Amino acid sequence: MTTLSLAMIVKNEEAVLGHCLASIRALVDELVVVDTGSGDGTVALAESFGARIGHFPWRDDFAAARNESLRLCTGDWVLLLDADEAVDPLDHARIRAALGPGPAAFTLVSRNYTRDGAARLFDQAVVPNRSGYAEGAGLPFYADQPLLRLVRRFPDLRFEGRIHELLNPYFIRKKLPIGDLPAVIHHFGKVDAARESAKSAYYLALAEKDAADRPGDPDRQFNLMAQAYAAGQWETALRAGQAVLRGARRIPHAVRTTVAMACQQLGRHQEALAPLLEVLRASPEHPLALCRLPVSLAALGRADEGRPYLARAMAAHPADPVPHVVLADLEEQAGRVVQAREAMRAAIERDPRDARLRQGLVELDLRHRLEAQAAADALEALRALPAQGDGHWHALAAGFLLRAGHAGPGKAVLDLGLDSFPGHPGLKALAAAILAQPATGAGTGSTGRPGSPSTGR
User: Fold this and answer.
1) What's the CATH number of domain 4-191, 3.40.50.1220, 1.20.1250.20, 3.90.550.10, 3.30.70.330?
2) CB pairs under 8 A, 24+ apart, for 347-355?
3) Predicted model pTM
4) What's the mean pLDDT in 312-331?
5) What is residue 439's predicted lDDT score, i.e. its pLDDT?
């Protein structure tokens, strides 16, 4: 019988490891968990699942730790996971069926979940989650990418790279075939934005060391570009991306779009044009290139040249709100506020549950002193997303209603806001203003008019 081992490395993953191991307990024949210095209950939790535990002192090298996990595996095949990932039961049979003659390794689908509808995985926009998997069912968006995660075990199999460690070079050197398997690895790490942000500086430092060790290696430069992009270090992202362009045989679109976005962030819009146009020559419907090119054209005083690209994006990707958001920016820059609002409304129609789009419309109203419209849009946002807005929508709508003399509705919105966001300064100020009114004044009838307290924004 062909056997399958799980291999993973962990450190202080008690909060998520149980979910991961439970998701693959019926799939694999062996659990190998290498701990790199946990101070919580990670090791005890892994042991409770019957895992073989390895201990490896951390030395700023992901490949070294992962190679220790490979060393401890005894199965014919190895499935590679992180603690914040899982495999849905729907894919167990598909993975087991792949463990036979044919390819020596498989790329699987790494599905990265997020709550942010404006997020991107390099040049790929997230999409609404309409899959049939139980894993990730409660999360609204995801972006997929192929990753080598299922490999036949060879005695000399080794990872390479201090960070974003890879097995692909081994199979390429050995001329061993790699197949594609449409099984999904569900990745939940990007849902915790604070955790992702906390890791970014450390990961960038590792990527810089890795690239310095082998400065001519395009894979190391790509990893450095990726980590610099995540950390918002645009000079480093640009420099590393340009190194990939000089040294790699095959250039993913993500390299050119990242170089272009770094140029845009640095105000070098003329330099951003060429990589974006190159992407569009190869992939005329590329969504990010179609939306980013108009940004640089507008910055160069050529906004009208960008509009056809946005029209192409809207036609090719009718469900994508991003081109409408970019169009709204262009219209606002041109002083066409009505058209800018229409574009933002079109974006919201494509994703009514995206709080950022709703907030963008409210902020557009406020920038142009459309107070009544901003309050109306905030109320509409609250009807669609009653738990969103961080209290700002409640404060804006309640403040406007109260100042307009609609004490009853204003007080109702205020109370709802205080129930959900009791510490919001604007809501607290409104409540204090109502309490300060004379007993016969505001808060009891349609003529009560508290002052103009801040919304706390």
Assistant:
1) 3.90.550.10
2) 347/321, 347/322, 348/321, 350/318, 350/319, 350/320, 350/321, 350/324, 351/117, 351/128, 351/319, 351/321, 352/384, 353/117, 353/140, 353/384, 353/385, 354/117, 354/118, 354/321, 355/381, 355/385, 355/388, 355/389
3) 0.80
4) 95
5) 59
